[in-house]
Amino acid sequence: MEYKVITEEHFERVIEHLRGNFFADEPLNHAAGLCQHGGGNAELEHHSLATLQDQLSLMAVDGRTESATYGQIAGVILNGILRPGDTEEALEKLQHSMDDNYKKIFELLYGHSLQVDLFARYNVERIFDVRILSVDARFRGQGIAKELVRRAEQVARKSGFRLLKADATGIFSQKILCSQGFQPFSEQLYAKYTNEAGEIILPVEAPHIKLQLLTKQLNYENNKDIPSMQQQ
Ligand code: ACO
Questions:
Q1: How much is the pTM?
Q2: Over pLDDT 90: what percentage of the chain?
Q3: How far is the CA of 43 from the centre of ligand 1 (A)?
Q4: How many CB atoms lie within 10 A of CB 182?
Q5: Which atom belonging to ligand 1 lies closest to the Cα atom of 131?
Q6: How far, in Å, CA of 84 to CA of 125, rounded?
Q7: Whose CA is nearest to atom 8 of ligand 1?
């Protein structure tokens, strides 16, 4: 497998990969019935492209020349920069969304994030935000997601980030992130995320039972190891 930084020329293929995999399979998207496999979603595509613009994202590409899937994207990790006020602004914009399913998902994610001020808690001004982890169904179970997370940390380190954060929506992504040194910070059980009538808003299927916000702090041996341009 070859691991590469995603640049603009790959954006279209990355979105195509997400349409065929993450958009339908991710536990919250699946629970909300956001997309069929292969189908698009304007808001999620916009969210993904905005994240790609930060140029911190990686993809795994099948590099086996003899393989029928040679050159295809096997997996991606989309990471963005999170700054103070970004989540508040995103939640405000979400109120104008016409897509009720997308709204349900992101109200949970943003609402949960806003319960704690990670910037103050960790004394940072920007966070390396792991937003989308996706592996093509044909390539799952081979350690690709784990490797993408490992390499994402190297990207974060090179850019001088002190804190990584992820909202992991399923049991497998939670396990993968923990295996790479992330620690659960807070969680929300899906069965307890209900509306005024007591109904579950997102009926996420087992084995996924909760949303978990995980963090990982990066330590640098001494301050001169932090890339100077992006120090904070
Ligand atoms: N069943 C059982 N175990 C699993 C499964 C599964 N379906 N998927 C992963 N695991 C376990 C593996 O056994 C492995 O554990 P081990 O190291 O103890 O052997 C570990 O998780 C790592 O597995 P990988 O092979 O690295 O994971 P993979 O490349 O298959 O990708 C992923 C996992 C990303 C969750 C993939 O199934 C996927 O794309 N799912 C749909 C999208 C999604 O849910 N993404 C995460 C949402 S959260 C976020 O994006 C921040």
A1: 0.95
A2: 94
A3: 24
A4: 24
A5: 51
A6: 7
A7: 172
